[in-house]
Write a structure and sequence with these properties.
The protein has 13 helices and 18 strands. The protein is an alpha+beta fold. The protein has an eight-stranded mixed sheet. Helix 5 crosses helix 12. The mean pLDDT is 93. It binds one RNA strand of 88 nucleotides through helix 3 and helix 4.
Length: 424
RNA sequence: AGAGAGUUGGCGGAGUGGUCGAUCGCGGCGGUCUUGAAAACCGUUGUACCGCAAGGUACCGGGGGUUCGAAUCCCUCACUCUCUGCCA
C-alpha cells in the first residue's frame, strides 16, 4: 500500500498517479484518506494524553499503598473511574478509525513510475523491444493443441477426468521437456546469482495480504477453507513473504531468490478459443525470480532482471517482444511492469510468458520489510519476474520448431537437460 | 490425533500484580589501553505511532478480560517441544 507519509507530503503526486491508472475520482479518494488520517491522529493524541494521566495516577496509588495510606489511595481510585470509561470509549474509536483508514488505504493501487505510459487497456501498451524472426512453418503446420495430441505428450482429457478443465497431464517426452526447462531456468538463475528456494505451495491470509492478493482478490486463488489457506497463484507470494516483518542488515542486501513452483489460478470467467490448449491453465509451472533491493538500486535491478529474461528466450531461440504496460493495464501493486510475449507461430499470436515488475515500497509497506542504515529503518523495494512461465513457452516452442514430418526439434540448450533432440 | 510442558529484546536467560521496555550474560556498535590485534575496562545497543520540540503512548506469541495498576492473574486462539498414536 502507499505510504501515508508520502500522501500527506504530496497528495498531488498520489492523485496524478491514480489518474494515470484511470482510478475513479482520485481526488476524492485521497481527500478521504487524508481526512481519516487526520482524525485518527487527533484520537490518538487525546487517547495518549488520557493514558498518560491514568498511568501517573496508578503510579501515585502504588506509592500510597506502599506507604500504607489506604484512604488517600481509595480516594484517588475514585478519580480514575471517569478517566477509565473515557479511555475505553476512545480506544474503541481509535481502533475503528485505524481499521477504516487501512481499509481505504488498501483500496489504492500503486502510483505508476513516471515512465509508465497513460492508457486504458492492453491496446495502449508500448512495444519497447522485439527480437527474432518469426519462423516460416512447413506445409500443414499445426497449432500446439493438435501437436501434443499427435505426439501424445500432454493429455487434457486425462486432466479433465481426474481434476477438471485446465489441469493437463504431461506425459513421456512432454513431462521430460517440462522438467528439463525447469532445470534449465533454475540453473540460469543460479548462474546469475540467485539463490534457490523451495517454498510452501499454500499460504496463509497474512501472506496473501503482504503481496497484495488479499483483500479483494481472493477470488483468483483456490482456497483450502478448512484450514484458511490459499494455493499460491505465483511463487512471488511465499518467496516475497519470506521477508515479512523483517529488518535486513546492509550486508544482507540485495536479496536475489529464485524458485520453481506450480501456480494455481482460478481464472474465473475465462472461456473461448483464445484459451485453448496451453494458452491458459488453472495449474502451471513457473520459475520466478524475486529481488529485495535498496530503493536507489531497484531500477538497476529491474533492468538486470529484464536482461536475464531476454537472454533466456534468446537461448531458446524464441521470437519475443517486450511491452511496457500502460497505467490502465498494470497490476494493482506494481509501479512498473514489462511483459514479455513469445511468438506462437501456428496460432499467429503473441503469448505472455513473463511479467517483470518493480513494486517499489508498495509491498514492503504491507510486509513491513525494511533495512537499517545508521540506526534508521527504511522500507525496501521488492521486484519479481517470471523466468519463465512454462506452458506458453512449451506451446511456442512446439509450434515454432515443428518440422514437415510432424516432429519437433528441441533447442540445443535444452538437449543436455532433455536427453533427446527431437519429439516424434 | 491424545497427554503434558512451553512461547520474554539479535541469541541465551531472569522476572508470578506496583515506576519493567523489562536484571544479567553473549553478540553488535563506540571508546580507553596497544605498533597492530586479542584480553581487560567504560559507554551504548528493539519497533511503531503522536508531537516543532521537550516529551508522551503502545508492544514480553495473537486476541479478549479482571484490576487504580498486568510480562506477571483469567479466558481463548495459534505455534513450539516431549511422550504415545498414525504416516511419506
Amino acid at each position: 500500500m502507499l505510504q501515508l507519509g508520502s500522501i500527506r507530503e504530496n497528495p498531488q503526486w498520489a492523485i496524478e498517479g491514480l489518474k494515470k491508472r484511470n482510478f475513479p475520482d482520485p481526488g476524492q479518494a485521497i481527500d478521504r484518506v487524508l481526512e481519516l488520517d487526520r482524525s485518527r491522529r487527533e484520537l490518538q493524541t487525546e487517547s495518549d494524553n488520557l493514558l498518560a494521566a491514568a498511568n501517573s495516577k496508578a503510579r501515585e496509588i502504588g506509592q500510597m499503598m506502599k506507604t500504607g495510606d489506604k484512604e488517600a489511595a481509595e480516594a484517588l481510585k475514585q478519580e480514575t473511574v471517569n478517566l477509565k470509561s473515557r479511555i475505553r470509549e476512545l480506544e474503541v474509536q481509535l481502533k475503528s478509525s485505524e481499521a477504516i483508514l487501512l481499509e481505504e488505504l488498501v483500496k489504492l493501487p500503486n502510483v505508476p513510475h513516471e515512465s509508465v505510459p497513460p492508457g486504458k487497456s492492453a491496446d495502449d501498451n508500448e512495444i519497447v523491444f522485439e527480437w527474432g524472426d518469426r519462423p516460416a512453418l512447413p506445409e500443414g503446420a499445426l497449432p500446439h493443441w493438435e501437436l501434443i495430441k499427435k505426439l501424445d505428450i500432454i493429455d487434457f482429457e486425462l486432466g479433465n477426468k481426474i481434476t477438471g478443465a485446465g489441469f493437463p497431464v504431461y506425459k513421456k517426452k512432454g513431462a521430460r521437456l517440462q522438467r528439463a526447462m525447469i532445470n534449465f531456468f533454475l540453473d540460469e538463475a543460479i548462474a546469475a546469482g540467485y539463490s534457490e528456494i523451495q517454498p510452501p505451495l499454500l499460504v496463509n491470509a497474512d501472506s496473501g495480504f503482504g503481496t497484495g492478493q488479499l483483500p479483494d482478490k481472493e477470488g483468483q486463488m483456490y482456497e483450502a477453507t478448512a484450514d484458511s489457506l490459499f494455493l499460491i497463484p505465483t511463487a512471488e507470494v511465499p518467496i516475497t513473504n519470506l521477508y515479512r516483518d523483517v529488518i535486513l542488515a546492509e550486508d544482507q542486501l540485495p536479496v536475489k531468490n529464485v524458485g520453481h513452483t506450480p501456480c494455481f489460478r482460478r481464472e474465473a470467467g475465462s472461456w473461448g478459443a483464445h484459451v485453448r490448449g496451453l494458452n491458459r491453465l488453472h495449474q502451471f509451472d513457473k520459475v520466478e525470480i524475486v529481488q529485495v533491493q535498496k530503493p536507489e538500486n531497484s531500477y538497476r535491478a529491474l533492468d538486470e532482471m529484464i536482461a536475464h529474461v531476454k537472454q533466456l528466450l534468446e537461448k531458446l531461440r524464441l521470437p519475443y517482444r517486450i511491452l511496457r504496460l500502460c497505467g490502465g493495464d498494470m497490476g494493482f501493486t506494481s509501479a512498473i511492469t514489462y511483459d514479455f510475449e513469445v511468438w506462437s507461430s501456428a496460432q499467429e499470436r503473441w503469448l505472455e510468458c513473463s511479467s517483470v515488475s518493480n513494486f517499489e515500497t508498495y509491498q514492503s509497506n504491507r510486509l513491513k520489510l525494511r533495512s537499517r542504515t545508521d540506526g534508521k529503518t527504511q522500507l525496501l523495494h521488492t521486484l519479481n519476474g517470471s523466468a519463465l512461465a512454462l506452458p506458453r513457452i512449451v506451446a511456442a516452442l512446439l509450434e515454432n520448431n515443428q518440422n514437415a514430418d510432424g516432429s519437433v526439434t528441441i533447442p540445443g540448450v535444452l538437449v543436455p537437460y532433455t536427453g533427446f533432440d527431437r519429439i516424434n
